[in-house]
């Protein structure tokens, strides 16, 4: 599916719609602009932030967008080739639905919610993808796991047990707040996750740890 999408856009300038202008936006823009055939449209409810992350960058523009205004969201999505959404989780499903309706692939670091899974058949028919959970955790941890698995199998090994840990524990000299944590992503989401139950497999047995 990814190769099909690449072939559809080969040899032409691609307009990438980046929804959101938070801490990750500038790194995403810089990465995208490494390709001369990408033009990045940054759309955000905080347009001043969007202007800051696009400042002094070529092939890049900043715009105001309230994603709860569906008609306006449709206009931006329709005028793009692909959508990257780095905004809070409560806005991802409406964006995904508009992308599926119009026929644009979407990339996000957010979880694959049931409402997004429900769009699978429509996405297949239109030849687009919804690439979710492609951030740090989940995201990089998945890629690292696959890399470790492939390396073990390539050497004829067998995986008996695998544990993956991810977090943002700061060096002691910088641990200067009551949380003992440094926020590199949404503080609200990080604190909210404390209320999530934990489930994992240990030696084939599902373990469950209730939230605080």
TrEMBL record:
Residues 135-210 form the Saccharopine dehydrogenase-like C-terminal domain. GO terms for molecular function: saccharopine dehydrogenase activity. Coiled coil: none annotated. It comes from the Eukaryota. Keywords: NADP, Oxidoreductase. GO terms for biological process: lysine biosynthetic process via aminoadipic acid. GO terms for cellular component: cytoplasm. InterPro entries: AASS, NAD(P)-bd_dom_sf, Sacchrp_dh-like_C, Sacchrp_dh_NADP-bd. Residues 16-130 form the Saccharopine dehydrogenase NADP binding domain. Gene3D superfamilies: Dihydrodipicolinate Reductase, domain 2 (3.30.360.10), NAD(P)-binding Rossmann-like Domain (3.40.50.720). PANTHER family: ALPHA-AMINOADIPIC SEMIALDEHYDE SYNTHASE, MITOCHONDRIAL (PTHR11133:SF22), SACCHAROPINE DEHYDROGENASE (PTHR11133). This is Saccharopine dehydrogenase NADP binding domain-containing protein. It comes from Paramecium tetraurelia.
